[in-house]
Amino acid sequence: MVKVDDRNTTVNEARFESLLDTAADGIIVMDERGRMLVFNKICETMFGYSSEEAVGKPVNLIMPPEFSTDHDRYVRNYHRTGEKRIIGIGREVSGMHKDGTVFPLELSVGEAVTPEGRQYIGVLRDLRPRRAVEVRVSQLQAQVVHMTRLSAMDEMGAAMAHELNQPLTALLLYLQAVTRQIKNSHAEGQVPSEKVLGVLDKAVTEAERASHIVQRMRQMVEKRDPERATIDLREVVNEALDLSEFVAQSATVTIRRVYGPNPIWVDADATQIQQIVLNLLRNALEVAKESEERWVKVSIGSDDRSAVVSVTDSGPGFSEEVSRSLFKTFSTTKKSGMGLGLAISRAIAQNHGGDLMADSGGSGQGATFTLVLPVHRAAVDEG
Fold it and tell me: Which of 106, 207, 300, 335 has the fewest C-beta atoms under 10 angstroms from its C-beta?
């Protein structure tokens, strides 16, 4: 009987070692005192230590110094109170390679009661490959967002150029009038009149107006990394509306602003949120200019958790069939366009922890697109 037991034990050990060597994740077994009893081949690759170097050593060997103290405290607290902080729960931690490199890990811990006392089995996965993929996806998304922004500016370019001529022409006329007035006043020995100063003020106003338009266009087209900050949603929407109103003037579409005077704070990238609003406004203006009433309404509101921007047009709305594909990439009802605008806009909203939704009020009652964003955390706490 003893020989059979010995044979079974040998077979079980061989199976266990084979399992450890072929596992796709790192596996560490630790005793109650924090010494490593098992250190499989994936761990050797992951941390740079051989099994011979690691087994028998404290598990702190593969931890950054700042995490070692916390780990020891957690273990002591568990032994004393039985309160589980990590056992049975997967979490992200940091590991340290033999060369000192600190890297992110996903760790799951289980517990086993053995004749030698309690032992803890840790299953570890190196998160660096996943992080690299996430960074690449983020970079690609930023490129697509930039391309979409350029596409939006290209579609608005002709109308914007036309509208820029209005303040610039007015500026030229005002300055010509000032020149004539000053010449006449000087010939008569007079100082410039209040009328002259008033005309100069108007000229400056029109010049600033043109400068602001160009500046906003450059900000929208400029390629840069996302920059999140606490912003007043009303100001961001107002800037997008100012840009869009030039297009609306050519199309004789009225834009109605429906929101109060109080700030609505959100944590967001202002340029990306403007891109969403600008895209919604372009779509709404295009629909509204073909309708009889020709208006677009922009509403902003908030509650304890969310800030909401709604863009409603006076168009005919859309069918249920169209609603199913509104946010699908490369799906569009326009004669021109790639069908990226709404898909990218929703992706931006969701990356901000919000969403973008659409609703048709029914036949002939227009459509409403609603952007939802989380309100600034401090505002929630204060509320």
Answer: 335
